[in-house]
Amino acid sequence: MSNSDPPSDDTEPAPAGEPRRGFGLHRLRRLSLRRTLLLVLLPGMLLVMGLEIVVSWRTALAAANAAYDRSLLGAIKAMDANISTASGGLSVELPYRMLEFFELTANGRVFYRVASGDGLVEIGNADLPGAPRPLVNGQPQFSDALYYGEPIRLGSYARALARPLSSGSNSRQVVIQIGETLESRQDFTRQLVMETVARDLLLLLAGLALLVLAVNWSLRPLQRLRQEVLQRDPQDLTPLDAHHIAQDVQPLVEAINHHVMRYREAMQARRSFIDDASHQLRTPLTTLSTQVSFALREPDAALMKQALVAIKLQVDDTVRQTNQMLALARADTLEWHMEPCDLIALAQAVTRAAWPDARSRHIDLGFEPLGNLPAEVSTHAGLLKEALTNLLHNALHHTPPGSKVTVQAGIEQPDLPALSPAQAVLRVIDNGPGMTSAELARAGERFYRGSAQSSGSGLGLAIAKAIVQRHGGDLSLRTTDAASPTPGLTVTLHWPL
C-alpha cells in the first residue's frame, strides 16, 4: 500500500461521546465500486433465490399431494363401483387385489369406511374421522387427520343413491372414505423437495458466479481508464480517448475531458498572464533604472528634482500597474463567499472617494441611482468595489478636462420581465473621446490599450470583466452618443440577482 492510499479501515472513528451517525452509508461510500455492486446485488439475488426455494418447496409439496390424492381418488372410485343397494341395504364387495396393490403403492396401511349419509349403516373402519367440511355429492374432499395418534391422509367422497335405503337407514346418500398412512407420501415428497432445492442451489451458485464475472468484466474499462490516467505524463493535458470505453462510462470520460480542457485553458491563461505581466513590468523597471542613473549623475539640483519627480510618477504608475495585476489574479482565483451588500451605498462610496481626483482634472463627476427598487444584492463587496474603481479611474483619466462622468447603480427591470429577470447594474457614463468599433471589439482583453490611451496598463476593463463574470454576469460597452463630436463611452456591469 502506498502512502497515498486510504487506510484499510472503511470508517473513521467518531469523536468521543458522539454517536456514529450514518455509519452504513458512510461505509458504503468508501467501498470500491466493485464491492458496492456486489453488496447491493448479492443480497438481492440471495433474497430472490431464497423466495424461489420457498416457492419450489411449496410447489413440490402440492405436486406430491396432488399425485397421491389422485391415487387415493382412484381407490375410492374402485370401491364405489363395488357398492350394491339392490337388497335395500348397503353391501360392498371389497376389491382386495386393488387394496393390496394400493397398500403396496402407499408403502403403509390403508383404512376404509363405507356408510350411509346419516351414519346409521357403516362398513369397514367405523371410527375413521369424518370429513372436516360438509360433503357435496360428486366432489371428493382430501384432508389430513389423526387416526389413533397416527397421521393419515383421508379422502372422502359422497354420492346420491337411486333410491333410499330400506334396511337400517332411510338415507339416499352413501359416503366412502379411504385413508392411508404417510410413509410413502413423505418419502416421495422429501425426495422431490430435495431434488428441487439442489437444483435451485446449483442455479444460485451459477448465478452468483455469473454475477461476479459480469461485475468484474463490466469494470474492466474503468481499470483501463485508471491505468491510462496513471501512466500519463504530468504535463499531458490531451483529452482521454472515449472510443473504447463503455457507453455508460462515456459521460464520466466526457466530464473528465471537459475538466481537463478547462484546466488547460486556465494554465494557458495563467502562463500568458505571467508572460504579459513580466513584459509589462520589465519596461517600467528599466525606465526607473535609467531615470535613477540620470538623477545620480545630474549635478544640478533643479534638474535632479525634475528627475526625482519623474521617478515618483513612474513609481506610482508601476505600483498601480502591479496592484491591478494582483487584483486581476485575485479575481480569477479567489475563493469567495457572497454577502448582502447595498449596491447604491457601495457605488456612492466609490464615487465620493474619486471626487478629489475628478476636481483636480476639472471633471464633473456625479452619481444617479437606478429605479426605485431596494438595491440589496448578494455579492463580494470588496471585488465589486475594485471593479467599479477601475472603471471610474479609466473614465477620469481618459476624458479631457471639462467632461462629465456619471456613475449609476441599482436594479434594472427589463421591458419583458417574463422573458428576462431583473439585473443588478453598475454603470459609468462619460462624454469623452470614446472608442472606435475595432477598439470596442477588443475592449476587456488583458493589457490591451486603445489608441486614445497614452498611459495605463490596459487592465482596468479586464479586471472589471473578470469580477463580473465571477458573479455570473458580463461587461458591455457602447458609444454614448455617436452623433456628438465627443461620443463618449458607456461601460456597464450587469449580473442576475
Folded structure, characterized:
This protein has 497 residues and is α+β, with helices and mostly antiparallel strands. Helices cover 50% and strands 18% of the residues. It has helices at 23-30, 33-80, 96-106, 183-218, 220-230, 250-297, 301-333, 343-360, 381-397, 437-442, 460-470, and strands at 83-84, 91-92, 110-116, 122-124, 141-147, 150-160, 173-181, 339-342, 364-370, 376-379, 404-412, 423-430, 474-479, 489-496. The strands form four sheets. It has a five-stranded antiparallel β-sheet. It has a five-stranded mixed β-sheet with strand order 9-11-12-14-13. Strands 1-2 form a two-stranded antiparallel ribbon. Helix 2 (33-80) runs antiparallel to helix 3 (96-106), helix 6 (250-297) runs antiparallel to helix 7 and helix 8 (343-360) runs parallel beside helix 9. The protein is rod-shaped. The two termini are 50 Å apart.
